[in-house]
Design brief:
This protein has about 120 residues and is of the alpha+beta class. The chain has a single domain, classed as Arc Repressor Mutant, subunit A. It is built from four helices and six strands, in the order E-E-E-E-H-H-H-E-E-H. The chain has a four-stranded antiparallel sheet, with helices on one face. A two-stranded antiparallel sheet has the order 5-6. Helix 1 packs across helix 2. The protein is globular, with a radius of gyration of 14 Å. The N and C termini lie far apart (about 40 Å).
């Protein structure tokens, strides 16, 4: 993989830690903390996804851009699978995952995301 993401231009090596809404996401150290508490159990791909989504905030970032950031694969299901696993890690420590699915557009940072099923119903209304 190149140092720059071909879709979003993020520097995979030199991006600085991001501090947002009580989270500190450090892709170089491969760590995430929330209000000073380490979030353990996240994979490198999940840290890269979270970093990318936070960096794009308040805009959405597409599944393709996230996939390019974390893998050479072209399987976009990889993003949704990693997101489910990441949400489970946050749930295990009692914190709501700050990633909101935006149907048809991708993902965005949201410190208080709407549950996915409820979001879909609200958009349909």
């Amino acid at each position: 993989m190149s140092d720059l993401c071909p879709s979003c231009g993020f520097n995979l090596v030199k991006d600085k830690p991001i501090e947002i809404d009580g989270y500190v996401i450090d892709q170089g150290e491969r760590t995430v903390s929330y209000e000073g508490k380490q979030v353990s159990g996240l994979t490198l791909s999940q840290v890269l996804m979270l970093h990318s989504i936070a960096k794009a905030s308040p805009s959405c970032i597409s599944s393709d851009a996230l996939l390019n950031r974390m893998s050479d694969s072209d399987n976009t299901n990889l993003v949704s699978v990693q997101l489910v696993k990441m949400r489970n890690v946050f749930e295990d420590i009692g914190v709501t995952c700050p990633v909101q699915t935006v149907w048809g557009r991708g993902y965005r940072w949201s410190p208080h995301p709407v549950p996915v099923g409820r979001q879909k119903r609200e958009e349909a209304a």
